Protein 1
Amino acid sequence: MDIKNKVAENETVVNMTVSQKGHTLHHNGVFSPDGKWIVFDGRNDDTKIGETATIGMVNVETGEERIVYQTTNQTMYGPGVGAASFSPVRDRIVFIHGLPNADQEKPYDITRRTGVAVDLEKPMTPVFLDARDIAVPYTPGSLRGGTHSHCWSGDGNMLSFTYNDEMVDPQLRVVGVMVPHEKKIDVDVVVGNNHGEMYAAIVSDVVAEPILGTDQINKAFDECWIGRKGYLTSEGQHVPYAIAFQGNVLDEHGVTVTEIFIVDIDIEKITADTSAVGKVGERPKVPQGIRQRRLTYGADLSDRRHWLRSSHDGKYIYALAKDEKGNNQIVRCDVNTGELSFVTNNPFSITSPFNLCKESNKITFVAENNVFVYDMDRDENLRLTRNDLNDTRVIGIPSFSPDGEFVVYNQYERVGSEEYLQIKRAMISDKTSVLKP
């Protein structure tokens, strides 16, 4: 069916999908490099990755839906797939994949999943990216838990992820990376293991019990790559790869405060320290020479879950923080100085994670069940939708099209007594209503 015929009442909103199933968008990389396809997973409920069997995509121009990957032997316990993202440079999609041996006793879980890719020229053929090795001695370049929320670097060479170990301190979330490697990471062929195409390592230093008032963290999470090509230090040195992540510290009174941390990614140092894989009774360690630094002091980022975002030139990191009224607003942090300033001053609270456009001068988010675009150059909010609080829910994270002409987002559509999560497109046009912040 031609999506151009499915125009909403305000003439700017179009249904991209109509099939009676879930179409969940990930928080990043939903468009193919040429902008013609949008990738989604088959969830109709954000919490149901373990029960979800399909990764699909929809054509932006025709509305054609295709399944590009489907699990085998899928049950309510797994394996499950979800959270799919296109590479920025090739027709490859990465997504979370539960372990093939998932069952009632060992179902899909945060410590039992891995990163899998599928190439569009070879649909249905999984490529396991991070090796998983639970047989001692552990293989350098492998992990033994669950990687998730994968995010491509700007050049598509590497992936970041968050991770929970299955063997030691599974509740401690950390940030890791997959980097290119001259050969695959081969592990013993045992249940729970899989080979990997890339070299995986942890890059955030996390402790179970941080010392009060220090830079120690007990959780590293919801990261982003800094810039499309890294960033320049205050001394003018170019750092080609770096990650900003959120880290929970404890202040002098034992109160959890979320700050921004940065870690520079050096492939040679990561692959050189083979002992970082760890031994029995240890979590994987940060490779020698890889050090995180705390960027902010007193940022106290919002407890609304969101992922950090970087400007394309690597100068700024964007996040959510609460204003004096307790509303979630966008804040901007200088990568070198840690100086933090509010970008938005909305009379309402942002209720979703957010994304930046390619040029980094517009931000899209959800508030009051509507999709907004904030134009930083004009200091204007554009409301792209006309929903009220009684309409079906807008959920998840809106994303800009590569050309910046429209935003895609998730909203439930009611069919009889059922609701199905669909992908919608909202044009950014002169007809869009303007709300001064």
Protein 2
Amino acid sequence: MAPKLKDPSLLKQDVCYVNGEWVKAKSGKTFEVFDPSTGKLIGTCPEFDAEDTKAAIKHAAAAFDTFRHKTGRERSKILRKWYDLMMENADDLATLITWENGKPTADAKGEVTYAANFFEWFSEEAPRIYGDTIPSSVPGNRVWTIKEPVGVCGLITPWNFPAAMITRKIGPALAVGCTVVAKAPGETPFTSLALAELAHRAGVPAGVVNVITALGNTPAVGQVLTTDPTVRKISFTGSTGVGKLLMKQCSSTLKKLSLELGGNAPFIVFDDADIDVAVTGAINSKFRSSGQTCVCANRLYVQAGVYDEFCRKFTEKVREFRVGNGFEQGVTHGPLIHDRAVDKVEQHVRDAEKKGAKVLLGGHKLPDLGPNFYQPTVISGMTSEMAMASEETFGPVAGLFKFETEEEVLKWANATEVGLAGYFFSRDIQRVHRVAEHLEVGMVGVNTGLISDPAAPFGGVKESGFGREGSLYGIGEYQITKMVTYGGMGQPLQK
């Protein structure tokens, strides 16, 4: 039985939001979206193509000419109204997230609050867009800067946080005066479309926010967004491979870029850590959304002196999980997004087992629940030769590595092409500063497994991308700095 929405009009079937109106694909084509828990059809969405995307860009460009001149306070009020509407409709948004993504209702409600908070945060930043006055080295010159919106922005978001990833991009874009064409994830488009409906109700001017959908045509839509000269910025969250392709395409018009790509987060427990705190942190980091987050702990390194204790306590906690349909009472972990994700998890587990690791808990598919379910799994005796040491699992599997020294674990932690997040647990203040500075990542969690916050800059280094989202730094990603120099201003007053 399909879940019920308090406001059924938030479920948008067969239409996208372009120029303040709900429109179909010009071709009339649609694609199907399925519930990952049950495999049942949720509904259909438009299969936008290149021409549909170009039309959305054209409307965004026309709207930019007006929207960029609204005051920061005016834009602030629009974002605040959108935030209020999200909170008023939080239950329905959470229902849509659980329905199309699979995460349990409690997690989905948490995501809605997190997502809405980006609108609240950037509504407060919108009136505070400051430039600088700069002392000139040339006598008589006066130098100052203006912060201006970069222009039309193409936003491409993933399925794992269908509400938060789009608000984290739209919030700063609108705060500074940009307009956007947001391509919703093909697996989870209905949450994005519901947010577009709330944008309409919030009074977002026509053309300022455009939300489009595609599945089979995703490469074609992406190519238009990355090559159309009207689009001045691309913000993408997703895999490193796709990010590299989009960056290559953007080079044709030298667009401003923000890329938040794959991770392979190290999670380090030193022998002076509070083990209970470390276990809680590992649970929060590793198994959030069934391990389907880019900042999930992927490699858990535990120092030899506390390895056995940590393994035992950690496994006991994971044993308490209950896997099932996200709408069911008491379920802590839902399905993976599709069977291909399950297959990758299975491959990693079998590879580790084949190379000498020991499965302490789980380690198998759950076909009785459906094709997309996998047991929460704990594996000990991990080594660097195993696939999980170098590849992002993106599933509910925790591989535990034993280490001896700080130097050893930092070498292992940094032995990867990516560098998004890293975590470690220690009560030695000198070690805290030393390790935080040596980890080659964009974000470090010290004695915590949860680091996401609208006030904190989110982003990575190396092949995890560049640019920051959220925080004061996230605003700058949607701005250009214009310098103005006045000459002949320095003649002294005659007495």
Protein 3
Amino acid sequence: MKYYIINKPYEVLTQFTDEAGRATLKDYVPVPNIYPVGRLDYDSEGMVLLTDDKTLQHRLSDPQFKVEKTYWVQVEGIPSDDALTKLRLGVLVKGTKTSPAKVQLLDDEPEIWERSTPIRFRKNIPTSWVEIKISQGMNRQVRRMTAAVGYPTLRLIRPAIGPLTLGSLQPGEYRELMPEEITQLKGIAEKAPKPVSGRKSATFGNKSKGSGKKPGSKGGFRKQIN
């Protein structure tokens, strides 16, 4: 079985072919016969898991297994306590109430890379970062959640799936999972993670050990500059 993660860049499809000629994972990962677990939108960035393990793929994609995905969301404005509470309890998205989420306003900007295309923002309106953890997989769910409480998403990054973090992977870089990471993934795919709460500043976890790289990757992580 094969198990990889990639830091999907902005404006890359989470698939290996595209009739319209847009950038896909094939442009970054030269490993045959592996497939993405779930989706990450074209205009979102961050971790995508790739595998040929169909059982694990199903369990990580199916909300009933409650595998938690972490998102860092740059929003327009600074969410109020009331808005954060609504996100935690669930909001209506296309007539369906989202499941309870773990939500916290980050004290500082995450230590991340500059996006290939800078975000558009209004100078007279501040931006802030919110960490949202969910186990659902509704279409464009996180963006619709923040919009539902009045804070549009400007940038969306997935730094973690379950216990896996991007570590030091640059956009477009990928690496094979270590045996202990595969064991962890299979373990959390069989039970729901324990809830956590509180505010914190965000940084990536332990640096990855060894990576495959797309030629032309640049520099280390740095804070978002608007």
